[in-house]
Design goal:
The complex is a heterodimer of chains A (about 110) and B (about 120).
Chain A: E1 9-13, E2 18-23, E3 31-38, E4 45-50, E5 55-56, E6 61-64, E7 70-75, E8 84-92, E9 107-112
Parallel strand pairs in A: 1-9
Antiparallel strand pairs in A: 2-7, 3-4, 3-8, 5-6, 6-7, 8-9
Chain B: E1 5-7, E2 10-13, E3 19-24, E4 31-37, E5 44-50, E6 53-56, E7 65-68, E8 75-79, E9 88-95, E10 106-107, E11 111-115
The chains are: A mainly beta (about 110), B mainly beta (about 120).
C-alpha cells in the first residue's frame, strides 16, 4: 500500500508557482521522499528526492517539514508542459527490494493558459 | 544518453492468446523493473531484476506471467494465456543499481496492451 496521501487534482495558472502537497505521516527515519511525474502517454519521470533537508534542482524544489510528516513539491514557474500526474513516494534507502517504488494514484496537475 | 527502449508500443490480442514485450535498459544499469499500469492507477511493480537475477517477483502472477533477463541486459515479459484484465500499459524501468546509494529509475514509454 502507498504510504502517502495526495489531492486527486489541482489546477495552476501558467507562469505561476505550482505547490503540490503530500502527507506521509508514517514515514520512518530511513525513508526518503521521492517525486515522479507522468505526462500523458509517457513513462514516469524522476523529479527530485530528499530525506529531511529542502532540495532544489533544475526542475523543482522539495520542501520537507521538520517532523517529516509532509512535504511540498514546488514548480516555480509552471508551463503547459508541466501538466501531468505527480506521484509522491516514500522509499527506504538501501539495496535490493528496498529500492522499489510504490506508486499511489498521484495528483493530476493541470496548468491552465 | 539513450533511454529505456521498449517494443512494441501497442499490441492488441484476443483473450487466451500469448504476448511478449521487450525492454532494453540504459547501458550500464544493473537493475531492471517491469511495472503494470491499469488505466487511472499508478504503476504497480511486477518484477525486479538485479543483473540477471530476480530480486522480487512477489506481485507477478506466475500462473500466466513470466519474465527473464538472461544476459543481464535486455529483458522480456510474457503473458500466456492473456485475460481481459491484463489490458494495461506495461512499463520497463532501469536504474544504476549497485550496493547502497540512491539511484532514480528511468522509465521507458511503455507497451499498451489491449486484450479483447
Amino acid at each position: 500500500d502507498a504510504k502517502t496521501t495526495q489531492p486527486t487534482s489541482m489546477d495552476c495558472a501558467e507562469g505561476r508557482a505550482a505547490n503540490l502537497p503530500c502527507n506521509h505521516s508514517t514515514i520512518s527515519g530511513n525513508e526518503y521522499v521521492y517525486w515522479y511525474r507522468q505526462i500523458h502517454s509517457q513513462g514516469p519521470q524522476y523529479i527530485i528526492h530528499g530525506l529531511k533537508n529542502n532540495e532544489t534542482n533544475e526542475m523543482a524544489s522539495l520542501i520537507i517539514t521538520e517532523d517529516r510528516k509532509s512535504s511540498t513539491l514546488i514548480l516555480p514557474h509552471a508551463t503547459l508542459r508541466d501538466t501531468a500526474v505527480y506521484y509522491c513516494i516514500v522509499r527506504e534507502w538501501g539495496p535490493g527490494s528496498a529500492r522499489q517504488l510504490t506508486f499511489g494514484s498521484g495528483t493530476q496537475l493541470t496548468v491552465l493558459p | 544518453e539513450a533511454g529505456v527502449a521498449q517494443s512494441p508500443r501497442y499490441k492488441i490480442i484476443e483473450k487466451r492468446q500469448s504476448v511478449a514485450f521487450w525492454c532494453n535498459p540504459i547501458s550500464g544499469h544493473a537493475t531492471l523493473y517491469w511495472y503494470q499500469q491499469i488505466l487511472g492507477q499508478g504503476p504497480k511493480l511486477l518484477i525486479q531484476f538485479q543483473n540477471n537475477g530476480v530480486v522480487d517477483d512477489s506481485q507477478l502472477p506466475k500462473d500466466r506471467f513470466s519474465a527473464e533477463r538472461l544476459k543481464g541486459v535486455d529483458s522480456t515479459l510474457k503473458i500466456q494465456p492473456a485475460k481481459l484484465e491484463d489490458s494495461a500499459v506495461y512499463l520497463c524501468a532501469s536504474s544504476y543499481g549497485g550496493s547502497g546509494g540512491e539511484y532514480e529509475q528511468y522509465f521507458g514509454p511503455g507497451t499498451r496492451l489491449t486484450v479483447t
